[in-house]
Design a protein that fits this description.
By secondary structure, this protein is α/β, with parallel strands linked by helices. It contains nine helices and nine strands.
Length: 205
């Protein structure tokens, strides 16, 4: 499994210090990105620079794609993802619903294609992560029937406390299956990276 290099760890630590996200969510996103799951960072125009910084920090191994600039080419990207290709992208949007709406209008993407968005992280206008979603891909059950499951919330910022609340435990078996690991091993790796990032944050000036 890919390990954060020292420069990447420092970049992520800087974002954590700025309260863009926390160490636990950063660890989870980096692991999923390392396993080539599609990763989309969505943000309003006012937080576009932070979205770019976050994508570069947690997923430095793939060339980033601007979904707004792709137009109808985004449909080909999503179809490639349905065949197992991964991608890392940004888009100007303030919610998962807006991401879906923009891709439906600009690229003609339908529900099936949109199910391959992978991990979608939403930033608010100030550049803080307000939510992270696992978009479940179209699947077949044991009888060959099509299964369309709604997205799962991996994390969401509590408006009262300003802290991120974490819910990935609820879909850990699904995330483990998508990364070809055991759920217990994935949880342990998240904890290890979270602690390493916490240590890195304490050394960021």
């Amino acid at each position: 499994m890919n390990i954060l290099s020292a420069p990447d760890a420092a970049r992520v630590a800087g974002l954590i210090r700025r309260r863009v996200l926390d160490a636990e969510l950063a660890a989870l996103i980096e692991i999923l990105a390392a396993h080539r799951l599609p990763l989309v960072i969505a943000a309003p125009a006012s937080a576009a620079a932070t979205a770019d910084d976050l994508l570069a920090a947690v997923d430095g191994g793939r060339v980033p794609v601007d979904l707004d600039a792709l137009g109808d080419g985004a449909l080909a990207l999503l179809r490639a993802a349905s065949l197992g290709a991964g991608f890392a992208a940004t888009i100007r949007a303030g919610s998962l619903e807006e991401v879906r709406d923009r891709l439906q209008v600009a690229a003609g993407a339908g529900d099936d294609e949109l199910s391959y968005l992978g991990v979608v992280v939403i930033l608010d206008g100030s550049g803080q992560v307000v939510a992270a979603h696992h978009v479940r891909p179209l699947a077949l059950d044991a009888q060959g029937h099509v299964q369309r499951l709604g997205p799962a919330v991996l994390a969401a910022r509590d408006a009262r406390t300003g802290q991120l609340e974490h819910f990935a435990w609820g879909v850990m078996p699904e995330l483990a299956a998508r990364t070809s690991t055991k759920a217990g091993d994935l949880e342990a790796e998240i904890e290890r990276r979270r602690d390493a990032l916490g240590h890195a944050v304490s050394h960021v000036s």
